[in-house]
């Protein structure tokens, strides 16, 4: 029995994060502090260019291992754990046989582009927006619905088995919950509103599967999980290290981060700075249609309370631009060095770097764009370029923020940040300057897991309400704007000019 140190005797909440590259389990105490962590990577399978798969059985084995590992490291037993929360890589799609528990095919990962042609075909004469009014999403290979249709069309005999009621579809939350709660022996087949809102199959207003879309996509309703709230007891763990513990939350990873960052009021937003960046803003209890290249999504729903909606914007290249500076350009030796280099100059020296390496994501969605460094003169040094690299992340965030305000009429009140790049203090100050809003970094960096833990804790009364969660959440640092409005406007104008220069570089490939 290992001592849990300052964390006392519990009780605790466990969160399982089934991510794109690894699965992990974190045990949290009542103060929302981390007691223990266990993590395990799984294989990335690339059968063809543009195809990305995971072995769902390997993932389930890993989940069981990290749960056992985290419980053991904490020196606790199942009796000390009040609930289990789940968060997951979104849109990754799996179908399995409910009688044997065997997947019919590997999980098709969110990044997989094999359904591109199918999406064009499904768009018919309407195109990308065919289901946008009902789902808040464009018709794109990113989402789960077209992946289900691909499986039904391409796995021998699957459609017949699906129509006979022998096959279950789920995103990774559903797969984990079904297995946790007994699998073939009475496993619960559910998903939550946040994950369901990423399938292209759920109606945003009714929060039910949309029958018209199901028939357009030719997906039998029999395969679909039941849609539940993000914070309620779905069932009880039937075996393993946490046998007997209620399974009480599910949220897609970006929504879990929104919840873990306690963005419970309209206008509160979080941005996760990793390889790319995902920004979500709480828009209250009405879904806001986007006319500015954002996705409308469910932020979370607690029990039978009203659902809370969000707008989501994604940036393709943020952290990966720093990696590019290090690995391809050799201008820095480590990612951390970019801050030192960029801080050695006062400003960008007139240079702007738009990293449209694979096109532009939100709010433009231009696949014909390519990267550009604009405004070069003899004066510009590598330090100025380093600064332009950091500014690129901040300006791209500003563009998404502007789009959110245009769509929703809600001004950004504060931006809560998480992810690897938030250790860069110069970037954080630049973000605050460019957004003209406070930027806040939390004590617990594991925001995604924390969100799943918070939601599960709410469901079982471990925490009484969201006010208690706000009180629990602690800031580590805050940056406030220091830039004068004239400078900000002038620089933004130059940035937007640079963005224009990236467009139309690739001639129509069709």
TrEMBL record:
Q: Which residues bind ADP?
A: 20, 24, 275, 319, 420, 424
Q: Fetch the SUPFAM superfamilies from UniProt.
A: Actin-like ATPase domain
Family the UniProt entry places it in: Belongs to the FGGY kinase family.
Q: Which UniProt keywords apply?
A: ATP-binding, Glycerol metabolism, Kinase, Nucleotide-binding, Transferase
Q: What protein am I looking at? A: Glycerol kinase
InterPro entries, alphabetized = ATPase_NBD, Carb_kinase_FGGY, Carb_kinase_FGGY_CS, FGGY_C, FGGY_N, Glycerol_kin
What is an example of a GO molecular function annotated in this UniProt entry?
A: glycerol kinase activity
**Annotated Pfam families:** FGGY_C (PF02782), FGGY_N (PF00370)
Uppermost EC category: transferase
Q: Which residues are listed for glycerol binding in this entry?
A: 90-91, 142, 253-254
* Domain annotation Carbohydrate kinase FGGY N-terminal: ranges: 13-260
Q: Does the keyword Nucleotide-binding apply?
A: yes
Q: Tell me the ranges covered by the Carbohydrate kinase FGGY C-terminal domain, including all copies.
A: 270-459
Documented EC number(s): 2.7.1.30
Leader sequence residues: none
